[in-house]
Amino acid sequence: MKLTAIILTYNEHAHIMDCIASVRFADRVLVLDSFSTDDTVSLARAAGADVIQHRFEDYARQRNVALESVAGTTDWVLFVDADERISPPLAVEIRDAIGDMNAAGFKIPRHNYIFGKLTLGAGWYPDHQVRLLKVGAALYDPAVRVHEVVRLHGEEGALTHPIIHYNYQNARQFRDKQRRYIRYDAQIMYEQGIHPKPQNYLLQPLRHFWWRFITLDGYRVGLHGLRLSALMAWYELRKYIMLRALWHRSHA
Q1: What pLDDT is attached to residue 77?
Q2: 3-166: CATH class
């Protein structure tokens, strides 16, 4: 079975070399770049990766473009984000898994490092990602443009060794990414005709905080879990405020 590792990038100068190094066990490494303005592309090529570029539309479309680009050239793909790493034990497990003739894909847990800390609560573990896909048996749902969802035509397996994810190095990066996510979410809710109700501005953030801090064991990681749960509740509030602004703008 032939395996291609695919890395989606946009301005990933700080991560791309280490990411490529961690997936060299694959038969081919392909970088799908969204026209980076830094030296991501030149670094990727220097590290031996093939590079193609495609203008970013949304996350689901970008992954489907990647799948289309390797059709007929490989049996399996492994999607890896630039700030993720594949450990040697996971690499061995992946190589063993692609020999399963019945599976269409495999979900893999992630170890998320947030602000430099391994975070095993508040929703960031096990954080399963369906990233190992049989070509021709998987497609990302185009209707889900952020927090993308893959549809498998066959069985889903599960691996045990985690992807290492260096997620959110600092508060600024966390803020920037969450703002991007809530813009996508608010736009999708607007397109679905969802109007914010007065109680949403209070109840939704409170529910989100409870869900992360209590239900998803954020309390088990102490002040770090409290901080993350509170931040995510704040961005839940911001999402509804942004949704309200979209409706006001449409009636202006």
Answers
A1: 98
A2: alpha beta
